[in-house]
């Protein structure tokens, strides 16, 4: 079975080796990585990894689709050999880690638990900042363990998913959250399941991008999502900008994702396999030096950004703001009622 993870990155070399080691440990056999306008050596690191046989690296230098850099990369991906040859595909981000609970916690175990599936939703579990101010050179999945509850009622973004799907021609284009351009003659035969093993309705085969909230979606698999990281890393992320659309990253993005009410360390089950692969990568003299340079680049870039008042103001607000408080079911129902009335008015 050839399973492919597709990734787009910019200035994220400090996190790349952990991400690759984890996903190789959980069963992905191939990686297709697009880089864009990197100043921290991410592209050089990817060139080295390609030479070592770890992945395929494509420079995504533009021009770009109006929907953003990531859409541009994915639109062209279907023509590339790694995609054509893959049996299963997942489009992921550098802050997302597949966390399988079935069997030995690998992709074959997950697919064995859902033998009839042609697509599996990997629902986010949001991991918050937990008051961590400074980036340290250690695995993200080890350092950040505070997270949202397994059952969350609001906001809907907390229940968004990425998709692991069979590359059988049912979908002709890759998408950020789900495969796109369904073949009208085949899509009715698609069999979608959620991360708890439940069969999903036809809406998921065509357009849904978030799971039903108010229920646990993680019995077989979840997608650990670390969108914030350390506070200084968030300032760098805001400086980099969004990859899919215009608009600054500010406190609204932070508050809607900074859940720290629960703790989840289940991903540590893969740590021995991950650590062996990570040590192999860091022991390479080229990769090891590029990684060290990337960590130094992040430190220097943060110091430079702190010279400007808007960045200092954002950092100070991060320091002052407590974690997000999960809404009660009653509060969530109230928000859902407001949203439905607003949609009905807009559509009427």
UniProtKB/TrEMBL annotation:
Domain of life: Bacteria
Pfam family, one: Glyco_tranf_2_4
Coiled coil region boundaries: none
Record keywords: Membrane, Transferase, Transmembrane, Transmembrane helix
Topology within the bilayer: Single-pass membrane protein
GO MF term set: glycosyltransferase activity
Name the record gives this protein: Glycosyltransferase family 2 protein
Subcellular location: Membrane
InterPro entries: Nucleotide-diphossugar_trans
Organism, scientific name: Pukyongiella litopenaei
GO cellular component, one term: cytoplasm
